[in-house]
Amino acid sequence: MSCRFLRLAVAAGLLASTALSAQQPASDPVEAVDPFIGTSGQGHTFPGAVAPFGMVQLSPDTHVGPARETYDWASGYRHEDPVILGFSHTHFSGAGHSDLGDFLVMPVSGDTVPVKAGDADTPGFRSHKADETATPGYYAVTLTDPGVRAEMTAGTRVGVHRYAFPAGKAAHLLIDLRSIIYDYPGKILWSSVRIRPDGTITGSREVRGWASPRRIFFAMRFSAPVTGHKLISTEENILYKGFKGPGRGPETLDSLSGRALIAQFDFGALGKPLEVKVALSGVDEDGAIANLDSGPGDFDAIRARTRAAWAEALGRVTIDAPKPMRTNVYTALYHSLMAPSVWSDADGRWRGPDDQVHAGGRTTRYSTFSLWDTFRAEHPLLTLIQPEERNADFVNSLVASQKASPFGILPVWEFAGKETWTMIGYHAVPVIADACLKGIRGIDCAGALKAMVASADYAPYGGLSDYMSLGYVPIDRKPEAASKTVEYAYDDWTIARLARKLGETAIAARFEKRAQNWRNSFDPKSGFLRARKSDGSFRTPFDPTAINYGSDYTEGNAWQYSWFMPHDQGGLFRLLGGDAQAVAKLDAMFDYDNSKIDYSHAEDIAGLIGQYIHGNEPSHHVAYLYNYAGQPWRTQERLKQIVESQYKPTPDGLSGNDDLGQMSAWLVFTALGFYPVAPGSNEYVIGRPFVARAEMTLPNGQHFIVIADGLSDANRYVGGVTLNGKPLERSAITDAEIRAGGELRFTMQATPNMSWATKPGARPFSTTAYRP
């Protein structure tokens, strides 16, 4: 390949991007997003093309290897990797576990077409990369080895590739059905590919992975005629499985099944870029074809539609801030709008946790629910900035999965319609309760309450039998017992809240009692949450800094989990001895000296500030707890410390896994000046803003404006707050006040205001009253 071709290809891509950008105003939120943030370090995000909540996440994969090597490549990609394996159609954004990477596509040019990916020592079809660029809904890179400029875009159910091949060289495309991001033993249970009479390529695979077994189907069309093809099985000692007779070589097959398939399509020398349009389905190949037809248009048309969709979704929050903060917040908002992802086909059909196909009617079904993470801030954010219909579809999807579940319970951590049983709690419950308590229309809340209770009463799950009989989960019977006890108690409180609203007084009373079970695992003598044994004793020895998987806590230790009773901080502070003792313990957590502690064995422990761990979710509400002790200025100090140390507009700009948008949603809320410490309370705890002005367009059409007068690096404290021009003397704002529209105005100053929102009546919600 000539250097001249590279320069022309890169220039053409840049000119196309410039032409699109020139049509956008300087304040365009799409241009403020940097999809490369989080693609290095421990962010685990991907830079590729996706529509808001889209089924297809078309992105490069840079590494596929043994499971032990895959944590850092959970999204399939790391920014610093010099080579690209290919472009696959499904990815997680910021998960702490690997999977997906379905139907890898890679262009090859020239006379030789390798069927192996290759590595540093063995040439193959993987290529070195250069000149990467990305904006929401668009990704491009130059593959220097074949000399191909590759571009990606995506619609709701389709992904489109565009490849500019070197002039005069033969163009080829490989479809690798063997590749998967997490390289499980025996990962591909079965796969198939076939060429239909009209030239449409369809196929499927069933894989053994995190959610196992998982079925996925595809349909693909090309913008240029195929001049030749090969369907090859690379499985040892098996050649063209299922076909007999002479003359049936790879060049004459029109379909093939097996466990290790790769398809090669030849196009000869092309005079213009090749476009490859791909759709997915969890139902069948016909569903994938219908999804392919549901996204009409060529690459540029689909790119334009998706860009408009991102402009609308991101534009629901307008932000005035210096460029680095604006980039951080808009990218965080972008990452918050990727999941849950569409799972039902264009005709409404979807595959459920029972592995059966269900009719969905007009309701869009969603999957990819990382609920242990996203119940905290991600879903509450979506209730404010996404249409009610979409939020209702999220909840209705959860309830539909419960109805289709062989166990009759709500999803725990679900993707592709399959349950993974990852993490703890039954955190679909607070997502549903929060939406119903906020009055999101289109939800059968009474029916949803039945699903919530069924999950909370499912005795075989996670020690619930003991929890219901003893009031806690015993550590000698179930691991992570201390964490499970407090997370169940919070979930129970949200059930009680919804039951009380619906007039189900018996259910409300039962779960209000269960919501106080957090006390049964709290040790007032040590001041920490601890695991108890079935005989009632606390397990010893006890080290509040110890983090070990399968121990007393889930991805954390006693320091983080001793604050997890978001519905009853007043009760916790009483057990600690009052406000002063609570503040002292909070300070001890943030100021802890970790110099003699090694956490290298714990993958998810990142972003440490003392024993506060921002890179993992159990800490996310803790900085706001100073408000509950009547010292909101301390919350303001800690938030500045966290934002400045944990978020940067760089590829390594996220301190930990984004976890399907939770890390990002935390920043969006915090930048606006408030945060949902206890989803289900219909309150947001006030912190301090990090943007000079923001305006939210709410689902009801109202606008809520946040203004920070005098905001600067020096003016880091809140001097006073007004709501619609009237002084606000409490450190929380209600959901109803936000949805009514209006203005929340902060006056920022250089010194703390130690009198604002300090009285017991000015503090955020708690089920236990504060001590006067």
From TrEMBL:
The keyword Hydrolase applies. Residues 1-22 form the signal peptide. GO terms for cellular component: cytosol. GO terms for biological process: carbohydrate metabolic process; glycoprotein catabolic process. GO terms for molecular function: carbohydrate binding; peptide-N4-(N-acetyl-beta-glucosaminyl)asparagine amidase activity. PANTHER family: PEPTIDE N-GLYCANASE PNGASE -RELATED, SECRETED PROTEIN. This is Sugar hydrolase. It comes from Sphingobium lactosutens DS20.
